[in-house]
Specification:
Strand content: 5-15%
Length: 694
């Protein structure tokens, strides 16, 4: 029986041209009894044909009786465990099996082909020094990426002898003509196409797609310096219909596209047909989490859409953001981290945030709990970067809160980075005195935002990468991703403190993320001063925070847009201020216009009832309803009914004066005032308890 894979392979083979030197070198190695080299590295810019060549290598290996094993860096976590798990899956083994042992036990030659190797750069040292040397001698490894191999490979005499590196270049004129002929492009069109594409494989493929889509199409080169952009502009103008065009644009905006996400972004109930069409587009690839376009195609599509139709560009962003916001509440663990990475991807081109992030494309590298062997290493990292006094403080915290340490591991499984999330709500007075950072943070909380019952506060007391400390790196970005996940998922989180050794450097990024520079929370350890940024999550809760970031998401300049004016920040009041505000609000109950200045209009109690986007009249009515409900609660028991009657005549349906109110209730004035005072206190206490639980 002929398999679909066989037909796909035959179709690809029919369109493969050129690369004679590369395939000859590979074929020679396959035919040799002893491999002349064990590592073949292929590199070149995006769209130059690396993936196509690796598919050709895989077919050649199978024909020669070797077993091809294909991995793609986009689908592999950049950790030793992640790499070995992916290879085990390619071998058909359980995730925890040893792929090296399996290869050793099998007599046939294996060819390991790793595409998009640039995403696995953190593993180069481990691959070169640990993993590859342990492979059986009959294994051939092919790596394909955008960058040349690091100098460490060629500095090693062993790898000098056993590695080959090839830089891919555009196809020659004759090779390009051969390709166009195989794609049925008319002879009289080929010179123009070849002159325009200059042998770039992706460009040739896109042009051929245009001819297939438009019978009788006449190619007219445009005077554009960016070949890919010009071709894509023509391509998206000739898609089957508006829905297909929208699907392609949606696919370009997000990190990976699934049917569910596509349906929401383009506004259809069933996106199966559109998704299937996307899978057939030549520059769209499939991975384990969905579809994604070639990087050059993505950049060109996004740039064109942002310029051509900014309103639709913004609408697609908004729909994707809404989908991710919902998924964040439906997922947990690594799935939630992946969704958060997808969300952050929407911000990738913002000029403010872009210089501060170096995200791994998988978004799924998960930190681990520290082992016994890690503690001395973590202490040594802190001593190296921050000095011995900081290391002594860290040692104390590690002993008190070991569960609050998250470790990111390097190729050798040693800690490559870590994050310590100190729970300030759990520290003792003795703890407070032992760490200047905690003393400053708690003093700041006591003065401005005291924690209420059930509320929690986190100080990200230590965060660093082993090699780059707090500099921009992929590890630092993963730490930030974990911090953001903490913002969104920590129950009862009220206030956070984020310290930085270089606060001026991180100020633009923190400003983008609505973290306020708070000098009174700064601290000094070992003669070094650290700046601190804070956020009150009671004032701007996580989902509202995400809405605020949305306004920045589409910005094309470094000037930060203000938060949406309709989304009023939450007022976080102390108990005394809250009770006083309730008393004043009761006095103004019968005159709604006088409630316009009440801080209770921005309390969590009111905003939870009408939403953060509500206007002043709606919030005033919500406040009056809450006051009335709390007052009517007094009427429920005979003993307190007298308090309700005093409150009703005093504030809710007030008499012209307290003297007249006392007469209407047949009470002495002093008794009326005592009842009124008690009623106000009871209503205020009831609402305060509800506010604390909101």
């Amino acid at each position: 029986m002929v398999r679909l894979a066989d037909r796909l392979s035959a179709a690809r083979q029919a369109q493969f041209v050129g690369r004679a030197a590369e395939t000859a070198l590979f074929r020679e190695a396959l035919r040799a009894d002893d491999l002349p080299f064990h590592l073949l590295h292929v590199y070149g810019p995006g769209g130059i044909g690396k993936s196509t060549l690796l598919r050709q290598f895989a077919g050649m290996a199978a024909e020669a009786g070797a077993r091809p094993l294909r991995l793609d860096g986009r689908n592999v976590d950049a950790s030793p465990a992640g790499f070995e798990a992916a290879l085990a899956a390619a071998l058909g083994l359980p995730a925890d099996a040893s792929p090296g042992a399996a290869l050793e036990a099998r007599p046939e030659r294996h060819v390991l082909l790793v595409d998009t190797f640039e995403l696995l750069a953190p593993l180069e040292t481990w691959l070169r020094e640990v993993f590859l040397p342990e492979l059986p001698a009959h294994t051939l490894v092919v790596l394909a990426g955008r960058q040349p191999l690091g100098p460490e490979w060629m500095a090693d005499p062993g790898w000098q002898a056993l590695a080959r590196s090839i830089r891919l270049v555009p196809l020659s004129l004759s090779e390009g003509r051969d390709y166009l002929t195989r794609r049925a492009v008319a002879d009289d069109q080929q010179d123009a196409v070849l002159g325009f594409t200059r042998g770039h494989p992706l460009a040739l493929s896109l042009v051929a797609d245009l001819f297939e889509q438009r019978p009788g199409f006449h190619f007219e080169p445009e005077a554009a310096p960016d070949v890919i952009t010009a071709l894509l502009e023509q391509f998206v103008q000739r898609v089957p219909g508006p829905a297909h065009r929208a699907a392609l644009e949606a696919c370009a905006l997000v990190r990976v596209t699934t049917e569910a996400l596509l349906a929401e972004m383009v506004g259809v109930e069933d996106a199966h047909e559109l998704f299937a069409w996307l899978r057939r587009v030549s520059f769209v690839e499939a991975g384990p989490f969905g579809l994604f376009p070639h990087d050059l195609a993505r950049d060109a599509l996004v740039a064109d859409l942002r310029w051509r139709n900014p309103d639709w560009f913004a609408a697609l962003h908004t729909r994707a953001r809404g989908y991710y916001a919902r998924r964040l509440t439906e997922t947990s663990g690594v799935d939630q981290q992946r969704v958060l990475s997808d969300y952050v991807f929407l911000h990738r081109d913002n000029p403010v945030i872009k210089p501060f992030l170096d995200w791994q494309d998988t978004g799924s590298a998960v930190p681990e709990a520290p082992t016994d062997a890690d503690w001395p290493r973590l202490r040594a990292l802190i001593a190296h970067h921050e000095g011995e006094p900081s290391a002594e403080i860290a040692e104390r915290w590690f002993a008190r809160f070991p569960r609050c340490v998250l470790v990111f591991r390097g190729p050798d499984r040693a800690p490559a980075a870590f994050l310590f999330q100190l729970p300030l709500h759990e520290v003792t007075e003795e703890d407070r005195a032992a760490d200047p950072a905690v003393e400053a943070a708690l003093a700041c909380l006591d003065r401005h935002a005291p924690l209420r019952e059930g509320e929690k506060s986190t100080h990200f007391r230590f965060w660093m990468a082993a090699d780059t400390y707090q500099g921009v790196s992929a590890l630092q970005s993963l730490i930030f991703l974990k911090i953001a996940q903490h913002y969104l998922t920590a129950p009862g989180l009220a206030f956070t403190f984020f310290p930085a050794a270089e606060p001026d450097f991180w100020a633009p990024f923190c400003g983008y993320a609505e973290l306020d520079r708070t000098p009174e929370a700064d601290y000094e350890v070992g003669g070094r001063r650290y700046g601190v940024f804070t956020h009150d999550w009671r004032a701007v809760p996580p989902m509202l925070w995400l809405d605020h970031l949305a306004a920045r998401e589409l910005a094309t300049t470094e000037e930060l847009p203000p938060a949406e004016p309709a989304a009023a920040p939450v007022a976080v009041l102390s108990e005394e201020a809250f009770l006083d505000a309730v008393h004043n609000a009761l006095r103004c109950y019968a005159r709604p216009v006088a409630l316009a200045d009440s801080p209770l209009l921005r309390s969590r109690l009111v905003l939870d009832r009408v939403g953060p986007e509500a206007d002043d009249p709606d919030r005033i009515e919500a406040l009056r309803a809450l006051l009335c409900e709390a007052a009517q609660g007094l009427e429920a028991t005979p003993r307190d009914a007298k308090l309700f009657r005093a409150l009703e005549r005093g504030y809710l349906r007030p008499a012209p004066s307290q003297e007249i109110a006392a007469e209407l209730l047949d009470l002495p004035l002093s008794t009326f005032r005592r009842h009124l005072k008690t009623a106000v206190e009871r209503v205020a206490e009831t609402l305060w308890q509800r506010e604390r639980r909101a």
